[in-house]
């Protein structure tokens, strides 16, 4: 049997059957490779993850800010949570928060560890 999400181009709302069972979808590395902005409208993911290539030094690069702002607006229009990956500085975190990326991950918040982080982790919001 052929799965609807294996078709090219992907049908709008692909995976809605799984959503009814409680699954949530994240689109990783948005802005790079196959996960360009057209995938946002095709898949309507619950979470979009802005690729770290657009996060690195976003506070110093107007072109990266424009791309991130466009992705943020598109994600908001389809109701997706906006997450920025690879945040390494407070300046990056602040700019991304202004652009609507309230969820953030990266070394600014903590290094990978096998041990849980004691207390509450830093939050972007």
TrEMBL record:
UniProt cross-references to InterPro entries, sorted A to Z: Cyclic-di-GMP_PDE-like, EAL_dom, EAL_sf
EAL domain location: 1-125
GO terms, molecular function: cyclic-guanylate-specific phosphodiesterase activity
Name of this chain's protein: EAL domain-containing protein
Domain of life of the source: Bacteria
N-terminal signal peptide: none
């Amino acid at each position: 049997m052929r799965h609807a999400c294996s078709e090219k181009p992907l049908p709008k709302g692909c995976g809605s059957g799984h959503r009814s069972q409680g699954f949530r979808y994240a689109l990783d590395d948005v802005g790079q490779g196959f996960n360009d902005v057209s995938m946002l409208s095709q898949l309507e993911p619950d979470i979009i993850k802005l690729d770290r290539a657009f996060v690195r030094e976003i506070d110093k690069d107007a072109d990266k800010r424009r791309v991130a702002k466009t992705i943020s607006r598109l994600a908001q229009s389809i109701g997706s949570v906006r997450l920025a990956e690879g945040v390494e500085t407070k300046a990056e975190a602040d700019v991304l928060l202004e652009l609507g990326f309230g969820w953030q991950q990266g070394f600014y918040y903590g290094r990978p560890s096998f041990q849980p982080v004691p207390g509450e982790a830093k939050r972007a919001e």
